[in-house]
Amino acid sequence: MTRYAPLSLHVPEPEVRPGGTPDFSNVPIPKAGSVPRPEVDVDPREIRDLAFSIIRVLNREGEAVGPWAGTLTDEELLEGLRHMMTLRTFDARMLNAQRQGKTSFYMQHMGEEAVSCAFRKALQPGDMNFPTYRQAGLLIAGGYPMVDMMNQIFSNERDPLKGRQLPVLYSARDYGFFSISGNLTTQFVQAVGWAMASAIRNDTRIAVGWVGDGSTAESDFQAALVFASTYRAPVVLNIVNNQWAISTFQGIARGGSGTFAARGLGFGIPSLRVDGNDYLAVHSVGKWAIARARRNLGPTLVEYVTYRVGAHSTSDDPSAYRPKEESAAWPLGDPVLRLKAHLIRKGAWSEERHRQAEAEILDTVIAAQKEAESHGTLHAGGKPSVRDMFEGVYAEMPPHLRRQRQEAGV
Amino acid sequence: MPRRTMIEAIRDAMDVAMGQDERVVVFGEDVGYFGGVFRCTQGLQQKYGKTRCFDTPISELGIVGVAIGMAAYGLRPCIEVQFADYVYPAYDQIVSEAARIRYRSNGEFTCPIVIRMPTGGGIFGGQTHSQSPEALFTHVSGLKVVVPSNPADAKGLLIASIEDPDPVIFLEPKRLYNGPFDGHHERPVTSWAKHPLGEVADGHYAVPLGKAAVRREGSALTVLAYGTMVYVAEAAAEETGIDAEILDLRTLLPLDLDAIKESVSKTGRCVVVHEATLTSGFGAELAALVQRHCFYHLEAPVIRVTGWDTPYPHAQEWDYFPGPARVGRALVETMEA
């Protein structure tokens, strides 16, 4: 006979399910401007607190406050606002296009626009992102042609990837955007390798790895941290914590305590948490981490605290696992509205100009969509050739593929 | 011509490749300072420095994952997985990433990496130091799969693999590292010093991928083999007196189908041998291709002599390993069919 009570398994649950009232009051949100900004060459051991706090610049009144403020001019902020608005409009149009059967699949960024848009502006030409499927802001803010994004989504005759890839799995080498894979977290460790290569070649370019909260549970995440730490690779390792991995709340991946950023501490990697809905904070922290990498000070792990407002994908219905009102209750608000309020408060923007910009952006996106659709959509119009299906498996087509291509009649 | 073991030939290949191309980097577990548990990278770190040849954490997916990132940057990593039995943690990186990056990015990114791994049994390696996982890679579009059987080929094939623009799985039969082995474990081991294919030229040369080699010309039947089984097949032919033509495939993917067709069309009979387990092994692909392309020349069913469909055992090593006696019986059976 054992003298212990029977064991029981702990399975974490989100606090609220559909039908419940969202409550984020237990999520500690530090005041904007309250987190110190260390020098980039700080000893990682001295800033362990940053892995448990949240760096924020914009306060409730829309003011930019504290030591992390001041990395962007008003013009740059207006450009950033436009990027986020463009991504949101792009998302809305593509979501609709999927509903209309013009493509099979789409994934939107609603609520997370600041993370990829702001981070992109801290990078330099030649740096390489290893993104997931939810960082199209890197392309929008990087000036990649929107029509080509749509051509890829429609798998049409102008699709840069020749119809081989699922929609939104873009590839844009010249824009510092590595080919997206459906396999989660694989790119996180590849980013470390790219950065190691840059260091081996005594280059000055740096790499950026991207991963979501759920995917930090993949073993590639751990491998990336080990290799980045061991070789002090010039890489920024970004975790976008949007609270949800499809239907699974972040507590399942994170475990019962700590933060995602805190994972870096065991590897001696400086690890920061940042308000992912604060364009200014994302840019400032990104700039800090990028400077560390560029100055050969090694990797930085950054957790962007945000919220996935939209469905996981066009194949998902979040009302089955979380309250509909949850995104509205999210304490870090909406990144577009927060930057807009900041710019209006500064006198650099107005409601009227915002409405005007919305209309202009919508026109631009519709024009791009019309152009893309003129090259075909998934089931109508121009398509990539069937021959393209056999090309590019290898640099040179081996005999067995030549035989199969002949058999396919192309 | 200088004589080299397979280990020395492999090391020489990397030395040559690193010497002529600064983009070639070599890394893996114990590969740097120590020179590898099989000595295949001995002296490379000393010669080329720590940033060209280095030790890694024990993480196969990490080793392959960072190599893929390096290749995307423009380097040409030639990396080592200590045993083929330990490649599985990296399988996702190999299958989902390395093999597909060129295709999925429409050539924007490529993956010119070589993943070297000691493979095969016959060394009392038990379950996790003896496996032959080649079929897990030949099933993957976008990979190339190479298995050398001698020092001269090992060097030329490895140089060709490093220079190849696509990812190559380079399986090194560790039983052949120090000398050829025909399955006669009761006899003393022989060294490469006495074998003609132990002559390995200095400097740069390449053995093209996708080309088989005829190791023994014959007219009675064709044996399709690679790695250690080439020597087992030679012993079986000698011991049975059957005039077998032995084809060393060298590259499994892409496969030299023309050489296979030519030989089987001539002999009319075919035996496939490999160490790997039978079911869904690479031999199934070979047998199917022979059936499809040589059907009207065949005078007997294609037989496969392979490892049994069990994990690789320890004590029963020589009842598992397809030795000359088992291969010989298949040759006789094929001739009598």
Automatic annotation (TrEMBL), chain A:
Class of enzymatic activity (EC top level): oxidoreductase
Cofactor requirement: thiamine diphosphate
Domain (Dehydrogenase E1 component) ranges: 83-379
EC number(s) on file: 1.2.4.4
UniProt keyword list: Oxidoreductase, Thiamine pyrophosphate
Native source species: Pseudaminobacter soli
Function recorded in the entry: The branched-chain alpha-keto dehydrogenase complex catalyzes the overall conversion of alpha-keto acids to acyl-CoA and CO(2). It contains multiple copies of three enzymatic components: branched-chain alpha-keto acid decarboxylase (E1), lipoamide acyltransferase (E2) and lipoamide dehydrogenase (E3).
Domain named 2-oxoisovalerate dehydrogenase E1 alpha subunit N-terminal: residues: 6-44
Lineage, opening ranks: Bacteria, Pseudomonadati, Pseudomonadota, Alphaproteobacteria, Hyphomicrobiales
Any one GO molecular function term: branched-chain 2-oxo acid dehydrogenase activity
One Gene Ontology term from the biological process aspect of the record: branched-chain amino acid catabolic process
Pfam families found in the cross-reference section: E1_dh (PF00676), OxoDH_E1alpha_N (PF12573)
Record's catalysed reaction(s): N(6)-[(R)-lipoyl]-L-lysyl-[protein] + 3-methyl-2-oxobutanoate + H(+) = N(6)-[(R)-S(8)-2-methylpropanoyldihydrolipoyl]-L-lysyl-[protein] + CO2
Family statement: Belongs to the BCKDHA family.
Entry-linked SUPFAM superfamilies: Thiamin diphosphate-binding fold (THDP-binding) (SSF52518)
Region of interest: Disordered: 1-38
Identification of the protein by name: 2-oxoisovalerate dehydrogenase subunit alpha
UniProtKB/TrEMBL annotation, chain B:
Domain Transketolase-like pyrimidine-binding: 4-179
EC number per UniProt: 1.2.4.4
Keywords: Oxidoreductase
GO molecular function: branched-chain 2-oxo acid dehydrogenase activity
One Pfam family this sequence matches: Transket_pyr
Protein name: 3-methyl-2-oxobutanoate dehydrogenase (2-methylpropanoyl-transferring)
SUPFAM superfamilies: Thiamin diphosphate-binding fold (THDP-binding), TK C-terminal domain-like
Needed co-factor(s): thiamine diphosphate
Alphabetized PANTHER family for the sequence: 2-OXOISOVALERATE DEHYDROGENASE SUBUNIT BETA, MITOCHONDRIAL, 2-OXOISOVALERATE DEHYDROGENASE SUBUNIT BETA-RELATED
Gene Ontology biological process terms in this record: branched-chain amino acid catabolic process; response to nutrient
CDD domains referenced in this protein's UniProt entry, alphabetically: TPP_PYR_E1-PDHc-beta_like
